[in-house]
Design brief:
Helix Hairpins; three-stranded antiparallel sheet; two-stranded antiparallel sheet; globular; homodimer; disordered C terminus; about 5% strand; mainly alpha; 5 strands; disordered N terminus; intracellularly phosphatidylinositol-3,5-bisphosphate-gated monatomic cation channel activity (chains A, B)
Chain lengths: ~800, ~800
């Protein structure tokens, strides 16, 4: 780039050279001729007219390098990787490429999952999964070695300095080190010691490429913490004040165990914030003096109804802010990545546009699976101005079009348009039938009747008679109706259109499940029982009728990925707490264990004789234990639901020490944070979505309407042939069948051009783009003011039509 | 107004005539000269130069009528009364005036409260408040007669047609009718029958003038209902589906009482949504098969964590919209009221401005308690343009300045500026001391030490020793420090400034209470015990330190009125449910009542012998009954908190019928609605407030800063004297001491003018005004487009400066 002025006059050359060369190549050059960065890729300057094959080859190599680096930039933009981790030289590049493909990611993930799953088989193991110490310790060592190998690759790619600066990686490395030593100790001693550090294992999972969403959630949780803690302090403060008050007021009552000491008072009031011991905690005092209820009413009004809601308000507010900031930074990061990539793709002759050739080269690295036709169509979709090259403004939209699935728009409306006349008429009739309102409402009616039928049938089973293995005739009738409906719809709409609607997919799968259930019933297969039982889910279809439900369910599907990642985040917290719980509380509770505690009843298991009948009076709570990781998870879920959690706490406490309460209280506060975040997320998402609907007055009336992002591109016959030619001769791409198919289709259709539709489903980011439309413009301006890079100064004439128009398609 | 053209040339006349005459006068006129509305108040047209006293008098009367009607319009605007209930003639006016003063309002309120309180003494009465049937029935008849009298006044004022059209009044009348008959029946039979209609009594309270906020809340609740019900149906739907599933899966297990029948399944899962029976409901199934926990986890995830939050989101969203709409309609209603009043106040000579004389006349009716000085200052505050008359634009701001408390700005900074030198220096020193950061933080330190001291002291009391009646020395020391602090602050800042800060008031009252506690301790007065116990609240002062807490607490105080009205709304629901509960479930539960139900343990009261010690094993839940209205309220509060509510439900159900569950489930759903609204309100208010702070970047750093609305008005000496003169001679107002005081103060100060400050605390409406600033402008435009009234056409030259400038101050 530095001596680009030398080549400024070389216009009209077929083989343009990149304005900026890949940093990998520069590095290579610098190795060859130390200190002399101006030597550009050992390229002999080609003379016009008679291109030297060696020079051409080397030039192509140089372009390839640029494509690759641009693809890496785009990848970094997509993954929100910071650019300071960008590979700096050829060696780093190879490590980068090794560490950035799905195979490597899957290995990373599997290792992390394996490490976490090991706790199923370690010391307090799930009975049927117990492994010998040397087996699970060896497995652990193996997994840890894999992690170490992955870290080495990262070190190679990042370089030592960047590696040390990267906090997450350093934490991972140190945890790895500790785990390694501990695993060896376990292997040597042939017995597990107190290994609380296992609680840190989720770090490996969090660091996986595929768990980016979990990382973001964790960051968001940590960002919401400061205001949360402030309000939490207020909560705890009132708790202590009321504990002192309660102790003073009620400790004189010997029948009141809840306020007998100050510690008991504090614990009782802590539990009371969760409402788990209400109204029991009030009862002894209440039975002595009816006015004592005022103490509890005031306490609950302040703590539960005011401060807890305040907590939600504060978190909700912070969450909103953080969401917006996150969206902004991601957007600007992507923009910057696109700019970097653009710099690498423009040629010296046309420094303000990317032509198809370069774009295609980029896509071959960035999306290797994409067909030549799709690459071409994506280029066309970006190229809104109609000029032959993409300006930077066009190129900014890259991330919006990259995920599109392209399909030629059908010339006819129906899939059966080409069939013979009779078939056409029949199918047309079916089509009209299944699209009619009457058909739809008839089906709703059938489903409703089915629902009532199931209810009545189940209610008649009340006498405890188990399932008969005779298939009830109602089952067969309704299933037949559903089956006919599915068949009609598939034939009427065509399989493609039918299966492209989420609701139809739901109908289809429920019907298939019901059919499988029928088979299970008919052939008397016990294990498939549950399928029969899932029948009532058929009724969910009824919720298609009302607009609001469709809205809610659609939003639910749009938000599902985020919800799943929040769930995973919760599971990671569970895992850590489960490990700690297992290490300290495994096997401490058992039937009749806690007879000295206040919750003895819940742990009791005795035979009681009433009249002349002996029945087993079970407390069952001994089942809520930390005896293995599965039980721990269930116990922790019960603690999350909060009701009666103090029974588990008191049971464990009575068998261990008072300090055990700290574990349970900490867990409560942590889940409260996570749950509040989840509530805030759902609130935010739905309120956002509803605002969006209001703002854009979406016509959400048609239930079969696909609500996604659609791009249209028209391709003319000449253009298609030209492109095919270009790909064949210039680019040397071998697999051109997709392009050839397009040309054939064009020819066969008889039209001079064909419209292609690119579709993808809408994401939260698309919604945000529309919601913050005005602010985004401001962000961009602010960004370009502060981030105006030296490279960009050479692109002042961005979008000037004369320049773009002067260039040809390649 | 119709023949106003006749008088158009009469400028320069001292006694101007109103453009529009009060509708009361018109009515009078129409009585005098039927059909001839043009005869304006029997006024003989005065001849210039020699005003006829009779004509003047009658003119004054005409103006007085106008003032009164304008005041009524303003009142209607303030109270959000629709204008179609505006009194139409002189007779209606007298009824209106009778029914619109605080005495009448208080009577209304007292009657309603008396009616509600009667349930304390009726049939299932609170023991020490029991009254004979003829006593409480007579009281009721008396109260109902009062209500009937109030209704008659309303009928007189509204006229029959409007009365019938007014829905709320009609409902009230019919309820009154039923109650009347029932009360007479009770009196005749000398015994209470099943009187569920008593549950309707809160209607009388809701209809009170002072309960406008409650009415608004109820309206908001009803408006949020449709989306709420939609989501509730989704919730119930999943409940039924899972009940069928659960019944199929778990009914085979005879040890599982929760899913033995379909009804039990539904009830169990309904209770499970409230989490009240978790994990117990899972335990029998879980102990048989560990994987059955999946059923419960999935159910809770869908119902509790998803749909319940969705409910909140939907209500929150609706609530937001309703809040905004409500604000808009109130604002426009007020604007319209101001316009109506303006029309009545302008004179024929100056049809586009209101001068002080008219304004003063209005205020004498609208705010009879206001002093002449304050009326004058309010006029000045409105009169921003500096012209001698208020234009309509000025007048629009009326509601913003009407509540201001006026005070002359002190010339000096301190209250002790006028004291002799020595005293001044000492007080100045104290002033600097109490304002210093060091002093503040020293006090925080003392409070913190006090807190720790109390905690340690209380903890040392753990051995159950009751309070000694010796005053602990620490108590005296800390109290002395606080006392000294209060005295220093009062002397340093001056009592006025000290008590104007909410935080200081809090400090002061806590210290006074502590002092009272000390006396109670010293003189051994048992009943005042609780004061001693309130000591820890002193610690609340610590929360002044941090910005966020100040913010939260300030917001809390700003929102307190709304919160209180929401609380009152909840109590009204409680009342109705309590009455129904008492009618059906009074005295159904008692110790050992429910031995056949699943919750027998909670109602058991037996002596258990463990070893050689006999202890009373109490279930206590028989205390949660509907035996009188106070118990019912406590029981309903327990049901609101939700935890273990099913024990109360099952207890009552086992003693009555299955249908009793309907009562409890309905109550749960109703409180869920109200509680969700409360949560939505708190969320909305805080998020709104935080956005407001961010948007306006408030300097909230100074804890002593008063955050209110402040208006400034400068009054010159000549102006003051002129005004005094005007009031004395022209208006004939007798009580002018306030104005005279002002003149004296002006003279004494030696300055030519004095600045007065008008303050009031900020309300939610002020915040909304600022938040919706831009939208408000749009609303106004839209409003004036659609509502352009014929009266306004005569005021096209609004705000034209020439017209205003031509007029003198009176």
């Amino acid at each position: 780039m530095e001596n680009s002025s030398t080549f400024d006059n070389m216009t009209g050359l077929t083989h343009d050279r990149p304005v900026q060369t890949s940093s990998f190549c520069q590095q290579v050059a610098s190795v060859d001729a130390a200190g002399n960065y101006d030597v550009v890729n050992n390229v002999v300057i080609p003379t016009p007219g008679a291109p030297d094959p060696r020079a051409q080859n080397s030039l192509r190599q140089s372009w390839e390098m640029n494509y690759q680096e641009a693809a890496i930039y785009l990848q970094e933009g997509e993954n929100n990787d910071k650019f300071f981790t960008h590979p700096r030289n050829a060696q780093a590049l190879s490590a980068y490429l090794f560490a950035h493909n799905h195979l490597f990611y899957v290995m990373e993930l599997l290792t992390a999952v394996l490490l976490m799953l090991l706790s199923l088989s370690e010391a307090p193991a799930v009975p049927f999964l117990r492994l010998d110490v040397y087996v699970h310790a060896s497995l652990e060592l193996l997994a840890l070695a894999t992690v170490a190998f992955e870290l080495c690759m990262k070190l190679r790619w990042l370089g030592f300095h960047t590696f040390i600066r990267h906090k997450r990686t350093m934490v991972k490395a140190s945890v790895l080190f500790i785990q390694f030593i501990e695993a060896i100790v376990v292997l040597v001693r042939q017995t597990s010691h107190l290994r609380v550090t296992r609680a840190l294992r989720p770090i490996f999972l969090v660091d996986c490429r595929y768990c980016g969403a979990v990382r973001r959630n964790l960051r968001q949780i940590f960002q919401s913490l400061p205001p949360f803690i402030d309000i939490l302090l207020l909560l705890l403060f009132f708790m202590v004040i009321f504990a002192i008050l309660g102790f003073c007021l009620f400790s004189a009552n010997t029948a009141d165990p809840y306020f007998s000491t100050l510690e008991n008072s504090i614990v009782s009031l802590f539990v009371l914030v969760t409402t788990a011991n209400f109204p029991d905690v009030m009862m002894p005092a209440y039975s002595k003096n009816r006015w004592s209820c005022i103490f509890f009413i005031v306490y609950l009004s302040i703590e539960l109804y005011f401060i807890m809601n305040l907590l939600l308000a504060v978190v909700f507010d912070t969450f909103n802010g953080v969401e917006k900031m996150k969206f902004k930074s991601l957007l600007l990061h992507k923009r910057s990545a696109v700019e970097h990539a653009f710099q690498l793709l423009v040629g010296r002759q046309r420094p303000d546009g990317v032509c198809l050739k370069q774009f295609d080269g980029l896509m071959r690295f960035y999306r290797p699976r994409m067909t030549a036709r799709d690459r071409f169509l994506t280029f066309k979709a970006l190229n809104r101005s109609g000029a032959s090259m993409l300006s930077l403004q066009d190129f900014y939209k890259l991330y919006e079009v990259i995920g599109l699935k392209w399909k030629a728009r059908r010339s006819g409306e129906h899939w059966f348009d080409d069939l013979p006349r009779t078939a056409f008429l029949i199918l047309k009739g079916i089509n009209l039938l299944v699209k009619s309102k009457a058909f739809q409402y008839a089906m709703y009616l059938v489903v409703a009747i089915n629902g009532i039928w199931i209810l009545v049938e189940t209610n008649m089973l009340n006498d405890g008679v188990a399932w008969t293995h005779v298939v009830p005739w109602s089952y067969i009738i309704f299933l037949t109706i559903y089956g006919v409906e599915v068949l009609l719809k598939i034939t009427g709409l065509g399989p493609l259109k039918y299966f492209s609607s989420g609701w139809n997919l739901f109908d289809f799968s429920v019907t298939v499940f019901a059919f499988l259930g029928l088979i299970a019933l008919a052939f008397d297969m016990e294990p498939f029982y549950f399928i029969v039982v899932l029948r009532p889910f058929q009724l969910l279809r009824l919720f298609k009728i009302k607009q609001r439900y469709r809205n809610v369910l659609d939003t639910m599907f749009e938000l599902f990925p985020r919800m799943a990642s929040l769930g995973l985040t919760l599971i990671i917290f569970y895992y850590s707490f489960a490990i700690v719980g297992m290490e300290f509380f495994a096997d401490v509770v058992y039937p009749n264990c806690c007879n000295t505690s206040t919750v003895a009843d819940s742990y009791r298991q005795i035979n009681v004789t009433i009249g002349n009948r002996t029945i087993l009076d079970e407390g069952y709570y001994y089942l809520n234990n930390f005896n293995n990781i599965l039980s721990s998870f269930v116990t922790l879920f019960e603690l999350t639901v909060v009701n009666n959690w103090y029974i588990t706490m008191e049971g464990v406490t009575s068998q261990t020490t008072h300090w055990s309460r700290l574990y349970f209280m900490t867990f409560y506060i942590v889940t409260m944070v996570v749950m509040t975040i989840i509530v805030a997320f759902i609130l935010d998402a739905f309120v956002f979505r509803m605002n969006y609907s209001r703002k854009n007055r979406e016509p959400l009336d048609d239930p079969e309407d696909e609500k996604g992002i659609v791009f249209e591109t028209e391709v003319s016959q000449t253009e298609a042939l030209q492109t095919l030619d270009l790909y064949k001769h210039t680019l040397g791409v071998t697999n051109l069948s997709s392009l050839q198919d397009m040309c054939v289709a064009l020819e066969r259709s008889g039209h001079s051009s064909l419209v292609f539709l690119g579709r993808r489903s809408r994401t939260k980011s698309d919604l945000s783009m529309k919601m913050y439309e005005e602010e985004i413009q401001e962000w961009y301006e602010e960004y370009s003011r502060t981030n105006l890079q030296p490279d960009e100064t050479s692109h002042r004439e961005l979008d000037s039509p004369e320049v773009s128009a002067a260039n040809s398609i390649n």
